[in-house]
Write a structure and sequence with these properties.
mainly alpha, abc type-2 transporter like fold, 2 domains, 4-stranded mixed sheet, 4 strands
């Protein structure tokens, strides 16, 4: 590494540390985003507020309510006495559903023909579907318990078995903690967007201030200028990745089941793509605002088609085809498999190869266009 390249790298670090907004974006924003996604953007639906219209008011109905309280999915917040009250509470957003117990519930329970109603607010499909599944599960569990108690009182075998017993096993994330899914994806988002944005802004900032012309007339070669501008963000990108992995592991208990060297090597492949996108954006834009908008233009399709939030298998075929051209798609498979499953590089050969091809092609195209514009 010659003195000219070291001078460019030193100059870039000085500019980064002088710009407090950029420094905050690099050091603080990843942690803020991680906590927001770890706590707020959760798919774990619990403590759903519901109202109860208990028309029976018997020990049997109270036992049923206790079963719903024992499940962490529901929180009984209102005791109502009419359907109009239920409608008012749901329309006002104060509850997400209501449990309606009929007046003859205890009698029908003895006849094994009892029915209760669960009214759910379907305006939020995620909460609604989870509450529906949870209500059915609580009802089935309580029904088996009642059958066992009735059989015991009648002197019959007290074990009532359903006709089908599905025993589930969840590997790698037994408690289905959503943070285990979100935080590895957060590493990809930081490396992809923040690094691309910072690279584009740093180059355009030189052009806005007129210092790019001063650099061109110096003995610095175009390749050295590109390398000197990019290397500081490579180092900062690895620092951000390490920062998120460290906090995610010790705060959110996200496991690290694979080799850190392999994790950072694959992260470096994604950095090639993100920094290449930043360089390409800098050759298109003339101002930092234009550079920001150019990078943001790629953000929406990347978020929605990379598998960061939504599973690709549930998307239409033509969107799945487009997703093959998004580098982040491959990295998310890699990072989640490395952190949660502990697989080796052999199990991820196709994803690693695709990520490497994207990185070389994008960075190569960006470097050629950047050199041509300098010349």
């Amino acid at each position: 590494m010659n003195s000219r390249l070291l001078s460019i790298i030193r100059k870039e670090f000085i500019q980064i540390f002088r710009d407090r907004r950029t420094l905050g974006l690099i050091l603080v924003m990843p942690i803020v985003q991680m906590f927001l996604l770890g706590y707020a953007a959760t798919t774990d639906v619990k403590n759903i507020p519901i109202a109860v219209w208990d028309q029976s008011r018997t020990p049997d109905s109270r036992e049923l309510l206790d079963a719903f309280r024992a499940a962490n999915y529901f929180r009984i917040t209102y005791d109502v006495h009419s359907e109009d009250e239920i409608r008012t509470l749901i329309e006002g957003g104060e509850v997400r559903g209501a449990l309606v117990i009929p007046p003859d519930y205890d009698q029908r329970l003895l006849e094994q023909n009892a029915q209760v109603s669960m009214i759910l607010d379907g305006s939020d499909a995620t909460v609604g579907s989870t509450a529906l599944s949870a209500a059915r599960l609580v009802g089935q569990s309580y029904a088996i318990k009642v059958l066992n108690e009735q059989a015991a009182r009648q002197g019959r075998a007290s074990i009532v078995q359903p006709p089908l017993d599905v025993r589930t096993q969840v590997w790698y994330n037994p408690d289905l903690v959503s943070a285990y899914f979100m935080i590895p994806g957060m590493i990809g988002m930081i490396l992809y967007f923040i690094m691309a944005l910072l690279t584009a802004s740093s180059v355009v900032r030189e052009r806005e201030r007129g210092t790019i012309e001063q650099l061109i007339v110096t003995p610095i070669r175009p390749l050295e200028l590109i390398t000197g501008k990019v290397l500081p963000y490579v180092m900062l990108g690895f620092f951000d990745a390490f920062e998120v992995i460290l906090v995610g592991h010790y705060w959110f208990k996200v496991p690290i089941r694979s080799d850190l060297g392999l994790i950072f090597a694959c992260s470096g492949l994604l950095l090639l793509s993100s920094l290449g996108i930043g360089l390409l954006a800098s050759t298109i834009a003339n101002t930092q605002q234009e550079a920001f908008l150019t990078v943001m233009f790629t953000m929406l399709p990347t978020i929605f088609l990379s598998g960061f939030f939504f599973p690709l298998d549930a998307m239409p075929k033509f969107l799945q085809a487009i997703a093959y051209f998004i580098p982040l798609r491959y990295y998310l498979v890699i990072i989640r498999s490395l952190l949660l499953k502990g697989v080796g590089a052999g199990a991820l050969q196709s994803e690693i190869l695709a990520l490497a091809v994207f990185g070389v092609v994008i960075m190569g195209a960006a470097a050629l266009r950047f050199r041509k514009r300098l010349d």
